[in-house]
Protein: Putative zinc-finger domain-containing protein
Organism: Chitinophaga tropicalis
Amino acid sequence: MDDFMNDEYKDLFTATQCPTQQQLLDYVQGRLSPEQQHEVELHLMDCEMCSEAIEGLSAFEQKEMIPVWLRQMKWQMLRKLRTRKRRKDQVAYFTQLAIIVIVILFILLAAFWAFHFVRHR
Ligand SMILES: [Zn+2]
């Protein structure tokens, strides 16, 4: 009797288990893993409610992105303020990066000239 009840309950639960709105939003924005995406796609074939929800979310995708952008901008500003002390380190890092890039460019240029010289001798 108990087992029967549990099975029935489990089936009911499985049948009505829809992804959360956040999961659907992640699906629309392509942020789910391929496995998760496949699961949502399988569910969408059987669930009209979620299919309609996806349509609605797709239409509002750009609108939904605005708060995300604002949050990202705010977060980046906060991060800049917090890392202001490390600015000198950053300058040193970018100087090193610039030197590396210049060296690579010189090597490429040298290689190009060597190649050019050998081919046209
Ligand atoms: Zn559903």
About this structure: The chain has two domains: 2-82, 87-121. The pocket of zinc ion is lined by residues 18, 43, 47, 49-50 (CB under 6 Å). The longest helix spans residues 87-119.
